[in-house]
């Protein structure tokens, strides 16, 4: 029997998900990307990101278009929320990319979720540069330690289970020939690569890294990165990865002003 909803399903948006478009989407899902489903008949892709990395979000949009998926871009202004307990939550300005709903994304969603919980599908292709690059941009971290001369790459796998991260670690060895260790932060597993293994990983993903993330994948790990505003060499403190002291401070003050403005709006008496 054909119900009205089944008819709608029959004429829903269609897209052919090839292995390479799946690599791209999987890389985003390994980070903060997600599939939502407005009904059991279709699903959409969405990713939110700090406005600072708008170039990445635009690149994602272009790539979606390449693989035949229509999308829209949007902006979320900085927000301040006050919870029931009175805690103030600050959220920086963000941008997002969201696809239309597609019938063919349902099977992708099914690979990634049990109910509403994200799981790690074991058919992801870790050998795909594009997958690793998007994962790294979304959830990766780069640092050098000048004292013990180590290069460190971390992938924040804390959304996944201990067993899944162990599987990832083993797959990095088998598929990529890269040695990883699993460290814990707040009792959650993080996948870490060091030195030679970190450098080889960075060389592998660099061609796919968007401009605003290149500080995470420098050609020469020991060359100090430069302040994105004034070009000053950033040596020493690992937390200065993108801006010098002065410009980091200016950015912080500007953000605080935004927050104060948003807070005033919340606290304004209701007339
Ligand atoms: Zn500067």
Q: What this model shows, in words?
A:
The chain has 271 residues and is α+β, with helices and mostly antiparallel strands. The chain has a domain at 1-115: Endonuclease I-creI, CATH 3.10.28. Helices cover 37% and strands 25% of the residues. The chain contains 8 helices and 14 strands. The strands form 5 sheets. Strands 1-2-6-3 form a 4-stranded antiparallel β-sheet, covered by helices on one side. A 4-stranded antiparallel β-sheet has the order 9-10-12-11. A hairpin with a 2-residue loop joins strand 7 (113-114) and strand 8 (117-118). Helix 2 packs parallel to helix 5 (129-139). The longest helix has 23 residues, at 245-267. It binds zinc ion. Zinc ion is lined by residues 227, 229-230, 232, 243-244, 246-247. The site of zinc ion has 8 residues, from helix 8.
Quick description:
The chain is of the alpha+beta class and 271 residues long.
Topology record:
Blueprint: H1 4-10, H2 19-30, E1 34-39, E2 42-50, H3 54-66, E3 71-76, E4 79-82, E5 88-91, E6 94-99, H4 105-112, E7 113-114, E8 117-118, H5 129-139, E9 140-145, E10 150-155, H6 162-176, E11 181-185, E12 188-194, H7 195-205, E13 225-226, E14 233-234, H8 245-267
Antiparallel strand pairs: 1-2, 2-6, 3-6, 4-5, 7-8, 9-10, 10-12, 11-12, 13-14
The structure holds zinc ion.
């Amino acid at each position: 029997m054909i119900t009205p909803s089944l008819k709608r399903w029959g004429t829903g948006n269609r897209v052919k998900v090839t292995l390479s478009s799946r690599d791209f989407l999987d890389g985003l899902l390994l980070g903060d990307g997600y599939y939502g489903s407005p009904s059991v008949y279709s699903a959409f892709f969405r990713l939110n990101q700090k406005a600072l990395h708008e170039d990445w979000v635009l690149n994602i949009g272009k790539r979606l278009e390449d693989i035949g998926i229509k999308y829209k871009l949007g902006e979320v202004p900085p927000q301040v929320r006050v919870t029931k307990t009175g805690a103030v939550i600050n959220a920086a300005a963000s941008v997002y990319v969201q696809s239309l709903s597609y019938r063919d994304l349902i099977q992708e969603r099914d690979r990634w979720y049990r109910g509403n919980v994200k799981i790690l599908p074991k058919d992801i292709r870790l050998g795909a540069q594009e997958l690793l690059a998007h994962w790294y941009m979304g959830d990766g971290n780069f640092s050098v330690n000048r004292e013990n001369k180590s290069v460190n790459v971390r992938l924040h796998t804390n959304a996944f289970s201990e067993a899944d991260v162990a599987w990832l670690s083993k797959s990095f060895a088998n598929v990529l020939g890269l040695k990883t260790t699993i460290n814990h932060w707040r009792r959650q597993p993080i996948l870490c690569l060091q030195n030679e293994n970190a450098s080889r990983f960075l060389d592998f993903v660099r061609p796919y890294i968007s401009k605003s993330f290149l500080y995470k994948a420098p050609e020469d790990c020991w060359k100090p990165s430069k302040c994105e505003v004034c070009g000053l060499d950033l040596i020493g403190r690992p937390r200065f990865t993108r801006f010098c002291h002065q410009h980091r401070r200016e950015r912080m003050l500007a953000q605080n002003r935004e927050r104060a403005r948003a807070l005033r709006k919340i606290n304004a008496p209701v007339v």
